[in-house]
Amino acid sequence: METTETVRDRIGQVRGDVSPTAAGLALVLVAALGFTLLFLQDPMAHDALHNFRHGAGITCH
Question: How far is Cα of residue 6 from the mean position of the Cα atoms in its chain?
Answer without folding.
Answer: 24
